[in-house]
Amino acid sequence: MELDIENIETTAKIPHLLKYMGSKREILDFVIGSIESLNVESEWLCDLFAGSCIVSASLKGKYKIHANDIQEYSKVLAHTYLSNLKGSIPYNRLSQIKVKVSYFVSQFKRKYKNLNFSYENVHNLRDFQELETDQQKLIEKDFDLGFHLFTRYYSGTYWTYEQCVWIDSIRAVAEGYIGKPEYYPILSSLIYAMSYVAQSTGHYAQYRDAISESSMRDILIYRNREIWPYFEKKFNELILSLNGNALEFKATSRDYLDCIRIIEENSIVYADPPYQSVHYSRFYHILETLVRYDYPKVQYKGRYREERHQSPFCKTTTVKKAFEDLFNGVNDKKAHLVISYSDTGLINLNQIKEISSKVLKNKYSCNILEIAHLHSKMGRSDVRNQDVKEYSIIFKRK
Known about the structure:
Layout: H1 28-36, E1 44-47, H2 54-58, E2 64-68, H3 72-82, H4 93-111, H5 125-136, H6 149-154, H7 161-175, H8 183-197, H9 213-223, H10 227-241, E3 249-252, H11 256-262, E4 268-271, H12 280-283, H13 285-292, E5 298-299, E6 304-305, H14 319-332, E7 336-342, H15 349-360, E8 364-376, E9 385-397
Parallel strand pairs: 1-2, 1-4, 2-3, 4-7
Antiparallel strand pairs: 5-6, 7-9, 8-9
């Protein structure tokens, strides 16, 4: 069955914050329409694998929202989208933030004035490679000034030394706003700026090496970008456009089974689990480090956090059990369920239906909607996009 979405529109344009793999932004009307097709009297909607929180943001005027994701950075995005920023942050706040950030930047540079990595003197590939390598060696340096995580760990990788000093400085300023309305939009605007300045492919699985003059010139485009203009643009957009709180909201960073146990009965659960053997903790590990700012042990070329979440939905040996546990949890809470999945998932539609029948028996009706979708591979292969069928598998409790 196909869903007629001609008359379905999201209530407002949701500001873009992150290049996110598997984002539902391009098929948002289809997803919202699928949830609305339940036509049930439920106060709460639980966005169980919230990710970029675009679905939560779109429905904050219709339901009380529980946005959940195992990753901490998702909770930051949820708080940003679901809060009334327009009514709580004055427009001149940005200039005050810039003064504080600029102070931290200048203080850092005075302290380490011997560290200078200028791309202006790069004339050939060898010069470029040596400059990158010199920055990457900073991970071995002992800094004795607070808020140096990104400068130490990531200079010459996804960002330059200069860009990392600005990242650390904005992150330092954010700490002064904990408990205030500015805190989450500062972090979200920084996430946005980092995404559009990084020389990776839209995520942070690995940074690119310059192996030719051509690749060097492409990387230099991003090396020459400044963090602040992107931050400034997004912060202004957020405080001017995000008007009105959710009816009520909570944002959590829990395993999906822990979350289901604490939702309200008769909730609508929207579940958008990973489809393939791609762990989001590998692709967005740096955002987790940005939010936690805990100087973790890192490993491999990508400088991943040593301790990263591994989803059971990403493993062929555990994915069926993961769906079975999902259905059991929803059934126990007498909730309704909408699952997003695709025909490229680790298991197929018939297998999901078989599992649901075994667990839910005759307590739920099932309806399946589908839409053709061009899914971005985000640099994970030579093929940039992939044609898929995106499913909404809708379980309504009888």
